[in-house]
Structures are given as structure tokens and as C-alpha cells.
Amino acid sequence: MPSDADTSRPGPSLSLWSFRDDVTIETAEDGSLTILSRWGDVPVGRPAPAVEEVLHRMTYGPVALGNVAGLDEGVLRPVFDRLPGRIVRSLGSRDSPVPLLSVQPVSPLGVFALPEVAEDRPLRLSRFAFAHQRDGELVLESPLSHHRVVLHRPQASLVLGALPRATTTVEVGRKVSLALPVVADVVAYLVGAGMVVVAEAGTSRFHEDSDPTLAMWSPYDLLFHSRSRLGPHDDPAGATFRHVATLPPPAAVKPVPAGPRIPMYRPPVTVPHGMTLTEAVDLRRSTRTFAEAAPSTRELGELLFHAARVRMQTVATAPDNVRYTVTRRPYPSAGSLYELELYLTVDRCPDLRRGIYHYSPVDHALTLVNADPADVDELLDNARVSVGGRRPPPVLITMTARAGRVSWVYDSISYATTLKHVGMLQQTLCLVATMLGLATCALTMGDARVSASAFGLDWPAEVGVGEFAIGLPENDISCNEEYLGVHGM
Prior knowledge:
Strand content: 15-25%
Strand order of the largest sheet: 13-18-17-16-19-22-21
Largest sheet: 7 strands, antiparallel
């Protein structure tokens, strides 16, 4: 671990080679070697003694190839070429055992090539690169790269800090007061890892700014996409139950909050009004102008009963024989976890007080949690703007997510899974509402600050993730054509 006082000028740099921490070497009885890793096993036969020495030393840490007696790099290179995604390249300096930085592969496609970067060529940090700390060190990652860069010493971070805007290696050297060869080497490693981009030859233009495909992605969306699917990263993903040994399983259902309770109507049949699924799909429309009249509590009760109630509860088993409760409801949910909560903000309903209500899917009941007119007005006005209507919708359903309910089971994909659940619940609400003759519009965006305050959420343990407007159809159907609003579906 580098010292916080490590601010000296690095000495001459040198290239170092090592394996990822999860790589091991297996030696067969005949002396042949197999490189074992998370991305598969690679037989390399019986290499020359110097090559074998390099491979074994690389399992212990960074190796300078020039320090291995009798090594023919021409013989070593073909072996390295067979090991993509397994070799770490580090930039060391002769004054310290701690490298300046390391370029670590994060996918089986991670093949690092050290480029030559002219000292006067414009360059800058990629707009898709992001920095965070891991194990006390600064780490750079990008959804466009098959590597991560770990900055072990502050001198490398100084170079990084000089790259947010277009500059040159020479200018960076002046700013950070480091020897130009060291700066040039740090820059070359950052460019080779895809964290720093260089201008197109003879210009000051950067390809990532003009590429129409990249232009359509924000850095946040592309990062979110890449980390919520298998691909160019080595983060744990799927049902890892990472917290099972340290945190108890979150409750299957949120405790009912304090406040006046309103039991909802429970319909005696399972399919409302006998409409077929095909008819409901064909008749589904997004409504942006609702009638002045509003759905009754009976209609809201039918909607919530058929779309969101808890049908049953059962027990599942996690690793280490940890038991946790899961539920069954009308819409799908990964692992039957059902992290979504529903809050109804009521503007007008013939038999329900204006206010904000929490829905209990077990009791099939509403609880009044907030009657402050200002909070009700703000939520409904935001919905009116999103829908693009003349008046607020009679009822707004806000979906919140108890994030820990999913992340207790799933790694990396938990929030992406929650957003899928939002879409499935919105679709279920749409179809049931169509069968009931109600008008609906699923919204694409809400205000996280407003919902957290109005619902009294323990943010970020519970966060707003989706909105859904409900009302009665207006007679003037010309106002209800699809896609009139930007933020409604």
C-alpha cells in the first residue's frame, strides 16, 4: 500500500508484467503447464525454462522481463498472446517497489497494447471514464474498455488530474512538475487502457465526440447498461447473496405505516368484466386528458386487487440455510422478491379523501400517510406536466423500491432488475385498467426528492422508481391520442 507521503518524483519507469489475482498455474506430471483462470483454462505445454520462470513469478506479483536471465521475449510473446484477459500490465519506477499504476483486464477480451503517443498530440480524459476508490486506491473504469486502471501512487493521479480538457503530454508535464518521460509513460498506459483519448491525426477533434453511436449514449446510461449485464467487467453478477452472512433478509412486505386505514373492495371474480387478454392488449391506450369525474374506491380496489395484491407468502432458502420470505403477486418479480411499494396520491375520488395513501398488498387496504395540500399539489402537478394534460390526473400511483430487498440477493443487476419490475407492473396495471374501463398513462419520470419527502421515505433505502396516472376517459378522444406527451407512455 503506498504511503500518503509518497509525493517524491518517480525515477525512470519500467514495464512490469503479472497475472490477475485469480490466475493460477497447474503443472502436470510430464511438466506441461496449464494457466487456470475464471475465463477458462489455457494449456501452454512445456515452455522454455526462462518462460516458465516468468509465468510462475507473475503469479506472485509484477515482473520486469529484463530481470529474468536467458529470456527470449520472442519466445515469450506467443505464450502471452494465448492469455487474453489474464495479464496485468503495470508501470513501475526504479525508485519504489510500488508501481505508479496497473492496467488490469476485466474481461476475456482484455488485450493491452501500449501505444506511442506524440508529445504534441491533443489528448484528454474520455467522457466515459469514471473514477472511484477501491481498497484505498483510485480506480479508473469505462464501459468502453476491457480494462480498469488502478492508480497506486499520487504522481499518477496528478497526471490524471491534468487531463479533463484537451491538452498535450508536454503541457501536462509542465503542470504537474514531473519528468516528461514519466508523464509520457503514464499517458501512454491511460490511452492504451481506453481511459484517455487522443485527437484524430492532424486535428483537435476526438472520435468519441463525432461518433454518432457514442453521441446517443450518456456516460451514465452506458455505464449502467454495461454493469447490469455480463460483459466487459468482472464484478459479481446474479444471485450471489453477498450480504447473507452480514445482514438479515429484508422483510417481504413493508410494515403498514401509521394512519387511518381504508379497506379496499375485493372483487369476487378473478378476471374483471370477462374481457380477454387479447382484447385488453388491442384496446390499451395512453390517456393524457382525463375526465373531470374520477374512479371510485371500488374501481381502485378492483385495479389493485387484480394487479398488485399478495396472493400468498412462502419461505425460500438462501446459502448457509438462511430462510427468507417471498410472496406471489399478479405480476412477475425476479426471485419472487417484490420490492415495489405503491403510494396513491389522490386528487379527486368520490369516496376518498384527498391525500397520499400507502397500499398494503397483504391487507388490500390503503393507509393515509400525508394529507398536506402542498405535497399533494406538487406530486399531481408534476404528473400533469409529464402527462401533458390540462388538469392533474385524478389518481397518481407512485412506485417505490425497497432497494435492499433485491440487492440482498442479486449483485450488479439489482437496480436494473427493479426497473424491469416497474415496467412489468405498469403493463399489468395498464391491462387490468383497460378491462375495467379506466384511463391510464404510465409516466417515464418522477421527482425523487418530492416523493422521498412526501412519502416520508428512508432514502436511499426506499426510492421512487415509477409513476402511473389513473382516471376516467374523457369524451373528447382526440385529446387522448398516443404520444402527445414527451414523458408519458
